[in-house]
Every structure is written in C-alpha cells, then in structure tokens.
Amino acid sequence: MQINVSQLLQEPIGSSRRYQVNETAVFDNGSTHQLTGECQLLRTQRSVLVKCQVDTDAELTCSRCLTAFRQPLTINFEEEYLPTVDILTGAPLDTPDEINHFTIDKNHVLELNEAIRQYALLVMPMKPLCREDCPGLCQKCGKNLNEGPCDCPQQEIDSRWAKLTNLL
User: Is 156 exposed, middle or buried (0-12, 13-18, 19+ CB in 10 A)?
Assistant: First the structure.
C-alpha cells in the first residue's frame, strides 16, 4: 500500500490526512491479504506520523490438528516515516542513527506494506487453534479427532492408579 505524501510535506506542522484502506496486499512470501481500515497521517517537524488500524486475515495451521484455517487479525500501529530528500530542493537529507526506521522514498511515497507485515506478525497467536475446543490428533493413529473418534482402543489404566477411577 503506497501513499504519496508530497503535498502533506509542503503543508505546516500539524496538518493531517485520513485515508480509507481497501486493497489487496502481496507480501514477500507471496501471500495475498485483503486489507480494510483507516490510516491517519500527521505532519510533524521532522517526519510524517502514521496511525493505522487495519483488518485482515492470515492463513495459519492449527497447532493441535494441523489443519489450515483463516484467522482474522486487527492490526494497530503508529510509526514515524522520515523523508530521505528535501521536498523543496530535492537534496538528500541525513538519516538519523536510529535503526529500523521507516522512510519516505525519493518520490515522496510512503510504503505501508512492511509495517503492516511486521505488526501482523506481532498480533498472530503463538499457538494458533482452529477452534478453542479442538481435540487435535489421536496420539496412536494420527486421525484428526475433529472428524470423529478414531478406532484405537482406549488406553489401559496403570494398575497403580486404578483406584482413582472410583472417585469419578
């Protein structure tokens, strides 16, 4: 997702713009995602501050049953984009010593895909589940228990623990 900010950079500090997001983004791994939401751009003394709330989804693999499923994601971020060239003269600007900062390219275009990708990784669940009560796979035969019970015999209870079954 690209936004040309040349006009915003020429305006006084405090000027802002709102953009509605409704497009498809393709990330480095080739996956495509539909993005919807809103971004607000604010002109600051040295940069453009971008505040976005974007809804999308990701294709994940359930950590219990190994089935692929789509997980909705809401991505909120606030990032500062620093210009690389002066808007009036076209002269290159010194970049700060900050590492991993986002920049505005020489054509005064913001590229939001990388920020969206990074923040999407942060909101993805560490242990994705296709549903909360997913029973997973059978430990013996590997059948997906979401599709029904397997034909494996029930586990025999260790004789040392057999008396505890009477408590149930």
Answer: exposed
β 68-83/102-104 pair status: parallel
Contact between 20 and 56 under an 8 Å Cβ cutoff? The reply is no
Phi and psi torsions of 32, nearest 5°: -105, 145
The Cα–Cα gap between 87 and 104 comes to 11
In whole angstroms, what is the distance from residue 137 CA to residue 58 CA?
Answer: 23
Residue spans of the domains in the chain: they are 2-134, 137-168
Q: Which of 77, 83, 75 is nearest to 44 (CA)?
A: 83
**Per-residue pLDDT reduced to its tens digit, 83-139:** 888 777 777 777 766 667 888 888 889 988 889 889 988 999 999 999 999 999 988
| b/e sequence 49-62, b meaning 16+ C-beta within 10 Å | ebebebebebebeb
